[in-house]
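Hey, resending since the last one bounced:
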Amino acid sequence: MIAVRPALPVALQNFVVFRRNWRSALFLYVMSPLLFLGAMGFGLGDLVGRSRGGVEGVSYLQFLAPGLMATTAMQTAVADTTYPIMSRLVWQHIYEAILNTPARVSDVLTGELLWLTLRLLAVSALFFAVAVGFGAGRTPLAVLAIPVAALTGLAFGAPVFAFTATQKADAGFNALQRFVVLPLFLLSGSFFPLTQLPIALQGLAWALPVTHGVALCRDLFLSRVAVGPAVAHLAVLLVYAVGGMLLARWTLTRRLVV
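The structure tokens again:
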């Protein structure tokens, strides 16, 4: 069982730091969906609507918004589990200081993932509010896409945390962004149906968590949820999230405990 209470000071420490720059973060979290949905949903969406009559029976905006919501959570999780964790681990040695208290490695990890989950919920909720303002997600089930998007981010953030705990410098983060995050952002079904990809790429996409997050968020936005596929999507996300947590605990323990 995860002990949350001993981990709360770690999450609180992150909150105290965040409180100093929350205005700039809030501006970014609101402007990002505004710009993406405005440019892609209406600009490109108008061209798609005139040439194809929409995508999968809905407007391009309705197709795009849930996909971007899930991939935004993924990108937020990657951003929060690379350089910030590297800073506390390598450059500032914050974790070493924490471990000189009664806190354990598991408390450090739980606190960081608790704070990440809260951030993902906030980012997803703001994105959802903007999407609703644009006319997408106006169905009773759509609000459930907020926790699903947060889980999508956690399914990515936990494994990336495990990767960061093995790094001594930030050189590997460029490769992570270039060869993992960017391809998944483009090939996860956010911008076009996966059926337009070659079979091999479709299989690769479905093997990774963000595709399942995109699909489930879209089904919730459009109120076309089927129990079987929804359970399968959630199962994949949970496997990646829990597996990433276990791997992160192992790599962080190896790094901090001599």
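The two ends are 25 Å apart (CA to CA).

Sorry for the duplicate.
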